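Q: Fold this one first, please.
A: Sequence and structure below.
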Amino acid sequence: MGEKKRGIQSAKSTAQMIEGFVKKKGEQIINPSNPLPIYCQVENFLRQLICELSLSKGTRLPSDRRFAELLSISHLTLRRAQKRLCEQGLLLKNHGKGTFVGDTSQLRVEREKGSEQRFIGLVIPSVEYYYSELIRAVEEKAREADLKLVLSISDWWDPAEENRQLQRLIGLKGIRGILIKRRVSRYKDLMRLGISVVCIDRDVSDMGLSCVFFDDRRGAKMAVTHLVSLGHRRIGFVSPMPENLRNQERFLGYKDALKEAQIPYDETIVVKKDPDRFEGDLEKLMKSPARPTAIFCINDYCASMVAEYVSRLGISVPEELAICGYDGPDLKRGPLSFLTTIFRNRYIMGTKAVEILLRQMRADRERNVECVILSPELIVKGSCGAKAISSYGSMTHLSNLARYA
């Protein structure tokens, strides 16, 4: 009886210690501005908790209900984090009895490595929804390879800031590779320092640099071809965004689809203006007697602007105007959930980029140039008046190429 009592007291003491640790960390545990999904942040915290409190195998954790309350998260989020740790053997679930600490040997190895830890860097211009799945994929693949991810957020329009972020990564002891999006001009400097480089979301094969990107021309053609299949012949193009290579590719895809359908290109139903003049030109277009019956927008944000604006003009979507977007954010919820769109799977892009980076890091001197071209996916929702379907894309992998069409 005495041993049982001591065991109960020990369990209570451990539970109090864990709760005290959670309360001490407080707001540091979950950061709403962190682009990592909340369940990934919870997973990282649970690893930290087990490591810093030196919890041994078999230690019982607080109940799921209590843990969810302490962390101010849903049971579903907690279960997702626990599931990943169970798959790694760090946690053990015993139905009806609770959650217990599993094999902590890997944590001890990580802790003993200390300064020997290897890193890869990811430099991106923002932490908008667009990048959250990319970051999650990179973090997961890095962890599988026993690498830590260092995330650097630069500024959209400030090359100097991006250079500072790169310099910070270069100066980090243990940095082995960097995924970059824009400042590819510095990649030779990085490689001279023994740092592997892969470019994401841009075709830079002509620079002899490995890259992973989407075929935006093909994606735009898929979108417009879908509108053609619904019987539309007057299909407008709207882009209030600054001209760049990606937007040019989408515009070319728009024209490709028209040409294939033998629909003459009509520049009077094309709006490519800066944001200050956008609404005026859109109003002029929609009040024209020969207004388009469908519009392909450069991205989903533009599509939502068009949908909101035409509704103020009394034009209903999709009954009087079909609208198709591009880029596909979280399609299950939010104000854009009704949009037919072209979805670019950033998780796959991140996964492929890290796989290439790891191969580059393992190579001694001769590093093959690898280019992975991802095809987007057509997601049909309610903004075009068609039944919801999806058309999955494909992937092309090119290696040992410095340039290709």
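Q: Good. Now the second chain.
A: Here it is, same layout.
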Amino acid sequence: MGKLTATSIEVSGLHFAYDGQPPVYANFNLDISPGSRCLLVGANGSGKTTLLKILAGKHMVGGKDVVRVLNRSAFHDTQLVCSGDLAYLGGSWSKTIGSAGDIPLQGDFSAEHMIFGVEGIDSVRREKLIELLDIDLQWRMHKVSDGQRRRVQICMGLLHPFQVLLLDEVTVDLDVVARMDLLEFFKEECEQVRTINCNPNVKNDCSQ
């Protein structure tokens, strides 16, 4: 894990609007410390996913100092994501592994092939995630259910240790037991001074 800063996420005077639409955020400020577990709540269409994508560097907003993650520009510093220090798991991401859009790929490959195909991974962390998510390494990715596919995708997304993790309703396809186990894992990660910002799909998860 790289050098920690006093602030994991810092947003200063954010203004953001989609073309032809009223502002989603105007003069918005945010300061999140390392080790935090933050829950983002609001009505449908209130801009929760938009904010997470901005923090993940998926939207360019103002100058380099408007949105900073680990004291680096979320949009301009591509090394943030490439290094694994900043990780984003969301709905659009969930369709990029083992599928093309909403259509499963026809290639017959296993969960083991995908998970063990990620290089430079701590084998202990990998085995822990496989066990925690109850993944059968023999699952064929073109035949799995949505819940099974999501488990593999979450595992792959968490293989690299992160400093900041942004989650956008990634537990939607998981059963209650798997969801609670995953939240316990996130709690342990935060105890290592990592930061998690979550847009949950189940309000009962908040107590975790």
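Q: Anything worth noting on the second one?
A: Strands lie at 9-16, 25-32, 37-39, 67-69, 72-73, 86-89, 99-100, 103-104, 164-168, 195-199.
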